[in-house]
Amino acid sequence: MKKVFGLLTAVGLMTAPLAHASTVTVSGSTSVAHVMEVLAENYQNTTNTNVEVQSTGSSAGIRAAKDGTSMIGMSSRNVKESELNSSTKEIVIARDGIAAAVNKANPVKNLTQEQISKIYRGEIKNWKEVGGEARPIVVVTRENGSGTRGAFEEIMKLQRTINGHKVTAISPTAQVGNGNGMIKTIVANNPYAIGYISLGSVDDSLRAIDVNGIAATEKNIVAGDYQIARPFIVLMDKQAPKNANDFINYILSKDGQSIVAAEGYIPVQ
């Protein structure tokens, strides 16, 4: 099903609500899309309702929900009031941690939030400064507009204000990867790289390091001990079609939330 979703284009999605009113269109955060595609597939199998999911990034998903080019938008960061209008509603469907991930060959097992921030600011440049090998750190970040990047910057205090506007404090020398998948590939193939990805996307190709001595686990996020965490949000118009509301109700149901848990995220129900 993911291959089918991957064939969708932004232009096609913009016309989908008009051309196929019976189809539920969903677009936005690549992190939320990871679980949304599974939810959509299961929902289609049980209801015979077509659901199309496209990974376009949180900012694009928020805009799509606001201007009506998508029935449902997805965001993996908090939404600013300026990005909404009076008819847009937000619904939290799950919670997720953001894992600071390194290559499995990297001996560093733990970093403080301050150390991670300094690495991303370019103030710590070599692994030997944090207990690793005497090799330069390859810093990997997400693209602009990524909800994961927005949440990571906010939590890790990686923003600065210039002329009244918030801008990133991440070093301009950092490599940029579009989506969790690309970040994983870069880190998994470079023993000196560090990146950040959705906790639900962590697999055996890399390793999530402890932060402030706390492991990145669901238990620690629920307890409030692991601090790098964010909500998974969907946005839709208050007058959205019934089929879109029915899909959201399914996501929030016992069956939908069991899928959220099975995919490695934290249910909200």
Describe what you observe in this structure.
The chain has helices at 2-6, 10-19, 30-47, 58-67, 113-121, 147-155, 180-188, 218-222, 242-252, 254-262; strands at residues 24-28, 51-55, 72-75, 88-102, 110-111, 138-142, 159-162, 165-168, 175-177, 193-198, 207-208, 210-211, 229-237. By secondary structure, the chain is of the alpha/beta class. It has 2 domains: 2-96 and 231-262, D-Maltodextrin-Binding Protein, domain 2 (3-Layer(aba) Sandwich); 97-222, D-Maltodextrin-Binding Protein, domain 2 (3-Layer(aba) Sandwich), CATH 3.40.190. InterPro entries: PBP_domain, Phos-bd, Phosphate_ABC_transporter. It is found in: Periplasm; Secreted.
Which features does this protein show?
269 residues; alpha/beta; D-Maltodextrin-Binding Protein, domain 2; 2 domains; two-stranded parallel sheet; 10 helices
Gist of the model:
The protein has two domains: 127 residues, Periplasmic binding protein-like II (D-Maltodextrin-Binding Protein, domain 2); 126 residues, D-Maltodextrin-Binding Protein, domain 2 (3-Layer(aba) Sandwich), CATH 3.40.190.
